């Protein structure tokens, strides 16, 4: 017993020291990256995060779920807001709202809503806008996510539209000559990512503009690139391009018509741009977008592409975001068509190709076009984009191209997850699925210009002849378990419905879960109680707006009880009351797996803050934790060219940490970036080529020899330093424990 007591005392001392060690380890080191924000809860999302997006409950005296700011200094102090009614003033329902920024005021009146979002997640934002201005040269429309309070706000992501690009003139019927042809609602849309934010303010604001707004939606958006795949394109968003080299990593294919050229539209060159903000204008993401333009009088084509190494006999998808400038003229001038496709290694054989009519390409938003092809025997293929244009006017007519994706197609099944649906990839034709509503057709062709497959060679073609046409499969679910379902769906239209009167398919595409087996599901669907009893966490109800691509449509939910349920994939709603049959959808595969809020709500704790600095100078290179300046540069010139992104602050300090605001940049200086709370998130070591000292660098807080530079702090140094204290406690505890044992033995 005495021997046990001796060692017990020693172990207790060690245990106490180790417990103290664990208690002192900073939480962000002890915890994994699987962290969940404190703001995250089970009521995180709904089908549409926007409450009353159609403004049906808004009155002049009570704006309901919406906050309106027309009187603050930021709003210009005399903006106006009103509720409007009548068929000529609304896009749908009975009401819409009209927001105006008066005259040439510099203010930005806005409507907004607070919402909780998943961090590091993409959301699809849509709204209908009717521009009531007659002069549209300098007016601006903005929408996006920002910090909860407008005063000293931080903008997380913002889209900008010039007023003359807020109206799709090609798609608005003219009731007469002149301005009336613009007097209609256009769809404005964007995909905006939240970063690490979980509490945001969604806003719509305008300047020098009078606009009617209706049907606002913010929904969860599954990433376009398939789970487990990667975008194989180099420079896919043209962020590495410059006007001197707009086709960086891309090449021209075939002959280029005389009068055609490529260029880069950089949002930072526009007067609407605020330095440091995460703003897009004619961009989907980032600062740049590519354009292919035909100067006035030029008529023909220009094609660009890129060689990609692929695996043989594998399905690949090529997705391209398209917009344009210059609406079609009575003479027929303007963008005639855009064609995208995939060429074989010989650069002549077409593996897949699709064409988009010029009138279907929007002035106000980007549409997504795609093709899917099997690589066959090829190990190299060439995805390509062709613009066919007739130029006119001062600036010609051009096709905008941004955010392209080329990836191996697959279902949404993270590593280690099992697909709970039988034949979800449709490799076995339609086995395991049955149809409700109208009639489905089965196809499994992947090659050629009419390739229709996605994950495998199989897909289901579904035409909409009646309400709630779709495919169904029964599945057993567990109470309170969270599930995620993702269906890949691609629309097609009947010829007679491709007109300016319709933006896309009449009925939204949806994934639903209905309680009951195959015998009861159809009754439940037509009784309109398809989600009754389910706890819907996130639901992406996709209204197809002339996009031509397989899009992931997602439902995340928990079941109220153990039992049999049915998964429905198809059209939610009726067919077109005027045209009847309007088109259909191709379903490329469906996945369903168990998940959790912890998996969905990841906070990025990698420490890689790649977007905290914005560099606008060709003489400066920012890479990793280094800033290299190619010539002698003053501190003032440097801070004008390089600055912190929205939500961060930047300072230049010397080796001792003292702020530097004058003189020239020098070796050994550091660029320090801090977040809104004042915490350092990243430091960069400065090297000036040709500066005194031969490019040697100095370690922070000391002298260096230019050979072994200490890495700049990334905001975690204090945490590792804090470990010295508990480590010392462990050592001391061990020494004390050994001393206790020895003393007992001596006795």
Strand order of the largest sheet: 1-4-9-6-7-13
Shape: globular
Helix run count: 7
Specify the structural class: mainly beta
Count of β-strands: 39
Low-confidence stretches: 1-46, 173-182, 494-503, 527-532, 606-610, 692-723
Main sheet record: 6 strands, mixed
Mean model confidence by pLDDT: 76
CATH superfamily of the largest domain: Galactose-binding domain-like
CATH fold call of the largest domain:
Jelly Rolls
Determine and state the CATH class of the largest domain.
Mainly Beta
The structural domain count equals 5
What is the helix content? 10-25%
> Compute the gyration radius: what is it?
29 Å
Beta strand %: 35-45%
The first-to-last residue Cα distance is: 15 Å
CATH architecture of the largest domain: Sandwich
Structure in words:
With 747 residues, this protein is mainly beta. It has 5 domains: 50 residues; 155 residues, Galactose-binding domain-like (Jelly Rolls, Sandwich), CATH 2.60.120.260; 158 residues, Sandwich (Jelly Rolls); 157 residues, Jelly Rolls; 102 residues, no CATH class. It contains 7 helices and 39 strands.
Q: Which helices and strands, and how do they pair?
A:
Layout lengths: L1 H23 L2 H4 L36 E3 L10 E6 L9 E6 L9 E7 L5 E10 L8 E7 L8 E8 L23 E8 L5 E9 L2 E12 L29 E2 L7 E7 L12 E2 L7 E7 L4 E7 L2 E2 L5 E11 L8 E10 L6 E8 L9 E8 L5 E11 L6 E12 L25 E3 L3 E4 L15 E5 L6 E8 L4 E12 L15 E7 L2 H9 L8 E5 L11 E8 L4 E9 L11 E13 L1 H4 L12 E3 L4 E4 L2 E4 L5 H7 E3 L3 E6 L16 E6 L4 E9 L28 H6 L1 H23 L1
Parallel strand pairs: 7-13, 35-39
Antiparallel strand pairs: 1-4, 2-3, 3-10, 4-9, 5-8, 5-10, 6-7, 6-9, 11-15, 12-14, 14-22, 15-21, 16-21, 17-20, 17-22, 18-19, 18-21, 23-26, 24-25, 25-32, 26-31, 27-30, 27-32, 28-31, 29-30, 33-36, 34-35, 37-38, 38-39
């Amino acid at each position: 017993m005495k021997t046990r007591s001796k060692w017990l005392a020693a172990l207790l001392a060690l245990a106490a020291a180790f417990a103290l060690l664990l208690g002192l380890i900073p939480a962000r080191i002890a915890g994994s990256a699987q962290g969940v924000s404190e703001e995250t809860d089970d009521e995180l999302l709904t089908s549409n995060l926007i409450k009353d997006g159609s403004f049906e409950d808004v009155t002049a005296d009570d704006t309901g779920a919406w906050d309106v700011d027309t009187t603050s200094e930021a709003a210009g102090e005399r903006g106006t807001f009103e509720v409007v009614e009548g068929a000529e003033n609304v896009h749908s329902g009975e009401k819409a709202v009209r927001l105006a920024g008066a005259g040439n005021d510099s203010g930005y009146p806005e409507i907004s809503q607070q919402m909780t979002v998943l961090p590091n997640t993409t959301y699809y934002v849509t709204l209908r806008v009717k521009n009531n201005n007659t002069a549209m040269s300098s007016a601006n429309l903005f929408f996006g996510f920002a910090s909860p309070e407008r005063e000293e706000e931080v903008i997380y992501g913002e889209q900008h539209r010039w007023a003359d690009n807020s109206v799709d003139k090609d798609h608005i019927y003219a009731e007469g000559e002149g301005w009336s042809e613009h007097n209609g609602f256009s769809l404005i849309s964007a995909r905006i990512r939240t970063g690490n934010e979980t509490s945001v303010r969604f806003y719509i604001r305008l300047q020098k503009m009078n606009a009617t707004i209706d049907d606002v939606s913010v929904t969860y958006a599954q990433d376009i690139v398939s789970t487990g795949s990667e975008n194989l394109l180099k420079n896919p968003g043209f962020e590495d391009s410059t006007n001197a080299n707009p086709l960086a990593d891309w090449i021209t294919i075939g002959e280029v018509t005389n009068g055609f050229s490529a260029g880069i539209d950089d949002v930072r060159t526009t007067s609407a741009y605020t330095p440091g903000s995460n703003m897009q204008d004619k961009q989907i993401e980032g600062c740049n977008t590519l354009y292919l333009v035909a100067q006035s009088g030029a008529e023909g084509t220009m094609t660009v592409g890129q060689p990609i190494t692929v695996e043989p006999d594998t399905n690949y998808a090529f997705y391209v975001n398209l917009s344009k400038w210059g609406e079609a003229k009575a003479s027929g001038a303007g963008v005639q068509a855009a064609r995208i496709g995939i060429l074989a290694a010989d650069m002549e054989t077409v593996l897949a190709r699709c064409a988009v009519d010029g009138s279907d390409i929007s002035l106000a938003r980007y549409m997504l076009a795609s093709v899917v092809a099997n690589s066959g025997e090829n190990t190299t293929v060439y995805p390509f984009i062709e613009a066919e244009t007739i130029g006119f006017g001062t600036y010609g007519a051009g096709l905008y191209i941004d955010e392209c994706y080329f990836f191996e197609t697959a279902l949404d099944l993270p590593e280690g997850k099992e697909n709970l649906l039988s034949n979800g990839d449709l490799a076995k034709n339609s086995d395991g699925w049955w149809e409700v509503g109208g009639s489905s057709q089965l196809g499994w062709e992947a090659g050629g210009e009419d390739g229709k497959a996605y994950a495998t060679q199989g897909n289901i073609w579904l035409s909409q002849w009646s309400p709630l046409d779709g495919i169904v499969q029964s599945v057993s679910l567990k109470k309170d378990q969270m599930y995620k379902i993702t269906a890949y769906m691609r629309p097609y239209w009947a010829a007679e419905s491709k007109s300016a009167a319709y933006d896309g398919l009449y009925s939204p595409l949806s994934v639903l879960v209905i309680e009951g087996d195959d015998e009861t599901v159809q009754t439940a669907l037509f009784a309109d109680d398809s989600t009754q009893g389910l706890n819907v966490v996130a639901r992406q109800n996709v209204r197809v707006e002339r996009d031509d691509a397989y899009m992931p449509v997602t439902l995340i939910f928990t079941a109220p009880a153990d039992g049999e349920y049915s998964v429905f994939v198809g059209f939610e709603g009726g067919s077109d009351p005027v045209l009847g049959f309007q088109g259909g959808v191709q379903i490329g595969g469906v996945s369903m797996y168990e998940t959790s809020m912890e998996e969905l709500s990841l906070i990025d704790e990698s420490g890689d803050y790649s977007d905290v600095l914005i560099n606008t100078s060709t003489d400066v290179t920012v890479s990793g934790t280094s800033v290299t300046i190619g010539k002698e540069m003053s501190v003032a010139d440097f801070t004008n060219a390089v600055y912190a992104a929205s939500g961060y602050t930047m300072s230049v300090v010397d080796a001792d940490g003292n702020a530097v605001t004058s003189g020239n940049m020098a070796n050994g200086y550091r660029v320090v970036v801090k977040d809104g709370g004042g915490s350092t998130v990243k430091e960069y070591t400065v090297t000036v080529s040709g500066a005194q000292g031969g490019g040697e660098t100095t370690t922070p807080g000391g002298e260096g020899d230019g050979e072994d530079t200490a890495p700049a702090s990334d905001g975690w140094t204090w945490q590792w330093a804090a470990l010295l204290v508990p480590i010392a406690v462990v050592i001391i505890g061990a020494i004390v424990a050994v001393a206790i044992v020895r003393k007992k033995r001596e006795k």
